[in-house]
Design a protein that fits this description.
alpha/beta; 8-stranded mixed sheet; 8 strands; Rossmann fold
């Protein structure tokens, strides 16, 4: 499914985003649209990896799911907890580097909007707002870790839904998840205007061959991967 997302994405009413925490954007909206096509209800156990503001966790909580949300950033954990309280939704929010704080746990659905923006600086930032988007020179530093860890957190028949930029090579994501035993495909695609972060490093992206000289938009993809 392909779409053009040219308008600013709507944010849930009264959703807080503390300084340095990733606010809902086009990728959030695209993943929410994919979630709305799935069967999610009161019996669904959901894990939101890298929850940020908690926007995705709150959305599936509204559908009745039992939700655990994790983030490595303390400020994001606080933000997600505040938003859950503000919206009166039962969401368990923990600080965790992906699944590190959840050994042996499994879920019906894992959702993830990870950092995926290619950066001229190879190392990942340890703090600050860039931690929410910078993901190494190819944008895959966190993506590859999710591809390696998420399959073990899925129950039989469980589903992973993850969004990332087409700059990160969706074929690599599909191959890694398929190698882990999941049935993976791209379920959604959308073109969006280049955001401020990509525009600020456009020269480097062009010199690296990641963006064409005439390119003014970015492709987003939703990866849908199901455990047999």
């Amino acid at each position: 499914m392909s779409a053009e997302l040219t308008e600013e994405p709507a944010r849930p009413d009264r959703l807080l985003t503390l300084p340095g925490v990733y606010a809902p954007q086009h990728d959030t909206r695209l993943l929410i649209a994919a979630l709305d096509r799935e069967e999610i209800g009161s019996g669904t156990d959901v894990l939101d990896l890298g929850t940020g503001s908690g926007a995705l966790a709150l959305h599936v909580a509204r559908l009745g799911a039992r939700v655990t949300a994790v983030d490595i950033a303390r400020r994001a954990v606080l933000t997600a907890r505040l938003n859950a309280l503000l919206h009166r939704r039962r969401v368990t929010v923990q600080r965790s580097d992906l699944l590190a704080a959840l050994p042996g746990r499994s879920y019906d659905l894992v959702i993830c909007n990870p950092p995926y923006v290619p950066s001229p600086v190879g190392r990942l930032p340890g703090r600050g707002p860039a931690r929410a988007w910078d993901a190494g020179c190819d944008g895959r530093a966190v993506l590859d870790r999710v591809c390696g860890a998420a399959p073990a957190a899925l129950r039989p028949g469980g589903l992973l839904l993850m969004v990332h930029s087409g700059l990160c090579d969706s074929d690599v994501t599909l191959r890694r998840l398929s190698d882990a035993g999941l049935h993976a495909r791209v379920s959604d695609r959308a073109r969006v205007p280049l955001g401020p972060v990509l525009r600020s490093r456009l020269r480097w992206l062009r010199e690296s061959g990641l963006v064409d000289r005439s390119e003014t938009t970015e492709e987003l993809v939703v990866i849908r991967a199901e455990r047999p």
